[in-house]
Amino acid sequence: MKRSKQAISLEFFPPRDIAAQEKLVRSAKQLLALQPEYVSVTFGAGGSTRSGTADTVQLLQNLGCSAAPHLSCIGASRAMLTDILDSYRAKGIRRIVALRGDMPSGMGGDAGELHHASDLVAFIREHSGDWFHIEVAAYPETHPQADGARSDLHHFVSKVKAGANSAITQYFFNPDAYFDFVDRARAAGVTVPIVPGIMPITNHTQLVRFSTMCGAEIPRWIRLRLADFGDDRASIRAFGTEIVGRMCQHLLDGGAPGLHFYTLNNAEATQGIWRQLRLA
Ligand code: FAD
Can you give the pTM of this predicted structure? Predict the structure, then answer.
């Protein structure tokens, strides 16, 4: 791999308790060997809180990582967002992953003042100028709530035009979807890097649950292979490492500007894929 050109980033989520925090610190320390360009910390996903994101960013910065908080605008007021942006700026944070986010299920309520990620990107630029490097989300297999692939691409282009510097994709297991999305984005005038988001495969049930929620397709052949392994976690991991590692190599060989790993706060799976890439 040409590390000078292809950057690695790692995503973590805020731990819920002390034991989970210790595991996160262990995982992050192990994964520092990958020399990530930055690590990111989710916001609001799975019920985590704003302070959980800020605390985890601090924790990872203390380990020497350049850390980027995710920030979602759903349910938030401009005043709340201003407060968060100013606090991150005061802490010297220079990168943010800007998202719309999702309303927690079962909670109706106020969607907030900004309704789309493009509004948040524009708001960050208006409020903070060029202080932050802004990452946005991209969906090679189309966002589940989109009217269609064309309109989703159009909304992606709007986020970039509003001032995003780069994009991270939802995970996928079909590299053609990524290459097709990049081609369509380039044809629409997008020049910013579009980094594939990589989900290691470690747990069949969890993967099916996540994929149903976020609209990522698990190809039939992978579903059937995983089903055959049943509760045999070791075989699932070995198979997952092999096929995801192979996909990463294919993505990098095909021009992907880097890889963003959804680590799920677990070092082993990402390390396994990494080792396979280094051997290839
Ligand atoms: P948007 O870009 O606003 O798009 C959402 C939907 O609205 C799409 O269907 C789009 O086509 C449509 N749309 C956009 N603009 C318009 C418009 N002007 N008019 C009409 N329709 C429009 N979730 C969390 O809760 N916390 C996290 O930390 C988190 N991190 C993530 C990181 C990455 C890399 C990715 C890929 C996703 C992450 N998510 C996170 C999930 C994300 O919040 C959801 O996918 C959410 O449903 C959409 O967010 P978005 O920023 O892509 O929204």
Answer: 0.96
